[in-house]
Write a structure and sequence with these properties.
It is built from 3 helices and 8 strands, in the order βααβββββββα. The protein is an alpha+beta fold.
Length: 146
């Protein structure tokens, strides 16, 4: 298993961060990495998602929601072609670290036979995409609460 993880502190409550994070319809307006998400966010349900790193082609996938714990965690698992080749468990974790401060952890755990090869090709771009999303989320949430 390999993991990519990023962390950013956002000067807003976990509720404010959660509300923006879970407003998937607004993603095309602000999110530079996850271009769209649609579908039910209940655990066990399938989403439709499109991610795109800067300068790359968009990738569409249909992950299954694993966790949706309000104001705490949203997690899904997707796969490339068939289970076991290159699977990713994508997660967003929110932690209250002050009255109006949230630690936002955004990452993905990868498993499967092709993990090493594929991560060598896309790992740095993927981490850059996470960081770009985190930065845009921080900017938007802090702008909304001030």
């Amino acid at each position: 298993m390999r993991k990519l993880e990023t962390v950013i502190e956002i000067n807003a409550s976990v509720e404010d961060v959660w509300n923006v994070l879970m407003d998937h319809k607004a993603y095309p307006n602000w999110n530079p990495f996850i271009k769209q998400i649609s579908g039910s966010t209940r655990p066990g349900e399938k989403l439709s998602a499109t991610i795109q790193n800067e300068g790359k082609k968009p990738m569409e996938f249909a992950p299954i929601v694993l966790v949706n714990e309000t104001n705490k965690e949203f997690r899904w698992k997707g796969k490339l072609f068939v289970k076991g080749l290159f699977d990713g468990e994508h997660y967003f974790i929110l932690e209250k670290i002050g009255a109006s401060k949230t630690r936002f952890t955004h990452g993905e755990q990868f498993t499967g036979m092709l993990t090493g090869v594929i991560l060598k090709m896309i790992g740095e771009d993927t981490k850059t995409g996470f960081e770009a999303m985190n930065s845009s989320l921080k900017t938007l949430v802090e702008w909304k609460v001030n």
